Amino acid sequence: MLPAGSRFMAAMTVFMAATRTGTAFVARGGALARSLGGAQQVRGFRATASMKLKTGIVGMPNVGKSTLFNALTEQQAAQAENYPFCTIEPNVGVVAVPDPRLDILGTINKSQKVIPTSLEFVDIAGLVKGASKGEGLGNKFLANIRECDAIVHVVRCFEDSDIIHVDGNVDPVRDIETINLELALADLAQVEKRLQRLARDKNVVPAEKTALEKLVKALDAGQAARSIALDEEEAAAVRGLMLLTQKQMIYAANVPDTDLADGNAFVDAVRKFAEEEGSRVVLVSAQVESELVELSGADRAEFLGSLGVAEGSCGLPALVKEAYELLGLRTYFTSGETETRAWTIQTGWRAPQAAGVIHSDFERGFIRAETIAYGDLVECGSEKAAREKGVMRSEGKEYVVQEGDVMLFRFNV
Asked: Which residues does the UniProt record annotate as the domain OBG-type G (predicted)?
């Protein structure tokens, strides 16, 4: 048997030879197959990674932020001690996005591997009042979450005299306002700095200057950048600033296990605040998530059931669901004997764009996409049955990919 490196080079040689002769290829589950009647699999060719959702975790010190991070990522990278600023260096963890549809597709197609899409969490030091001016440690690490797609703000919604609160008492809305103001002030400093540079620039783009002036006025008033109406040209002009308050916000209300099912008065206050600003709220219990790490699938469901909570309604699955909805993301699948894999795309993407997430050649040489809705494939039980029933469709370049589509791309490069 050839070594892994030799197998990869052999596969690439076959791929390049077919490319030169203009042979059409079929892309299924990360593998390539020549479309010559009975398609022969070409193994060893690795597709590029799918879009990875990156989420920053922020919060006041001692709200359970690092405990939650450790539980969600099933590791102990982040210190979780009972004193302010116990997280000193930013911690990064990558988790598989839970999706029960993957295992079902893998069973239908007898896949050798099942590969979920992934979510990256970045946990930074706790933020305090004055962080934008250097107080505490959090401001030092704000740059680590500028490249994130969304922000999860962990809010303390529990009383515990043994756990110190930096402001002396529990008030989740006050904590939210403190963090949001610090994020806005950090953005304000960045926008003002950019405006100063534009003043010396002879080739100023009018849309950028207009957008920056709007942002300065709003941020100076403590408003989030995402609340400001910018036209398409203005938004594009300032996108490179990666403003923190431009990102979508999810409030993770950290509650004791007894309140995980229905919440409490603290959670009610957070929900009211979030509704007014158009954000989302997810109930989490860092305590429960830490215990779930040690349990198997059946035991997890039983444990959550004992708390009156359905699996998937809290914690990581709920965070993923809210993040996908806020960011306008969809999941499609490729599935075959080699592997079943989930891919993340933007809502509204057409088939060639979706193919490009697997590999740029798939988009460049796109021909068509053989497509089955997930529900139809499960109902039929196999691709062969789906084809016989006429529910497998051949879609062209203008097709807008739907949530849960199972796709087989044909391309020619």
From this structure: 53-304
Q: What is the CA radius of gyration of the chain?
A: 24
Which of 88, 96, 86 shows the shortest CA–CA distance to 120? 96
Of 64, 94, 33, 61, the C-alpha closest to 168 is: 61
* pLDDT band at residue 413 using 50, 70 and 90 as cut-offs: confident
Residue range 300-327: average pLDDT?
86
Q: Please, are residues 349 and 334 in contact by the beta-carbon 8 Å criterion?
A: no
Give CA–CA dist 51/118, Å, rounded: 8
Is the pLDDT at 41 greater than 70, yes or no?
Answer: no
pTM equals 0.77
Q: Quote the tokens at residue 95.
A: 């988790």
- 63 touches 175 (CB < 8 A): yes
Give the span between the Cα atoms of 356 and 316, in whole angstroms.
28
Residues with Cβ within 8 Å of residue 47, at least 6 apart in sequence: 27, 30, 358, 359
What domains can you pick out in the chain, each with its CATH number? 4-46+348-411 (3.10.20.30), 53-184+238-326 (3.40.50.300)
Q: What is the pLDDT of residues 251-277, one digit of tens each?
A: 999 999 999 999 999 999 999 999 998
Numbered residues of the known binding site: 62-67, 255
Q: Which residues are annotated as a binding site for ATP?
A: 62-67, 255
Measured between alpha carbons, how far is 245 from 218 in angstroms, rounded to an integer? 11
Q: Which residues pair with 45 in a beta bridge?
A: none
